[in-house]
Design a protein that fits this description.
The protein is built from no helices and six strands. The chain is an all-beta fold and 70 residues long. The strands form two sheets. The chain has a four-stranded antiparallel sheet, with no helix packed on it.
Length: 70
């Protein structure tokens, strides 16, 4: 799993978490209100992915490279 903690969380507001492979294909998408979110990666191929978090207004909170290893 990849665990993500929302440090900027505001009660009642949600964030969108997206995980893309390097070919730009969306591999995971979830809208969350929880402080901590776990993304399952067991079925994903080893490699580099881009993790993007945007708030409910569509403003990018952050984008980070993620490496899945086996």
């Amino acid at each position: 799993y990849i665990s993500i903690k929302r440090l900027h969380a505001v009660n009642g507001r949600s964030d969108k978490i997206e995980l893309y492979d390097l070919q730009g294909r969306l591999r995971f998408l979830v809208c969350v209100k929880e402080d901590i979110t776990r993304i399952p990666v067991e079925q994903m191929a080893a490699g580099m992915y881009l993790l993007s978090v945007t708030d409910e207004n569509g403003t990018e909170v952050f984008t980070e490279k993620v490496i899945v290893e086996r």
